[in-house]
What we know:
3 helices
Amino acid sequence: xxxxxxxxxxxxxxxxxxxxxxxxxxxxxxxxxxxxxxxxxxxxxxxxxxxxxxxxxxxxxxxxxxxxxxxxxxxxxxxxxx
Length: 82
């Protein structure tokens, strides 16, 4: 049985653009290093428990596509969950 989730609205477009630009820059400076599957799954588990995690697999706080962002070594949860 899947959990019913009420999607919170995404942040304004400029906030999303800022978050994405910052993370892409940091990821490139870090030579595009990625986390292993264990860390990825731990992060994903935290997101799945979060009220800001939307059914379209985006974060309502920063607007990021979490399936991509969770893999990048340098990224952080915008509310400090991982």
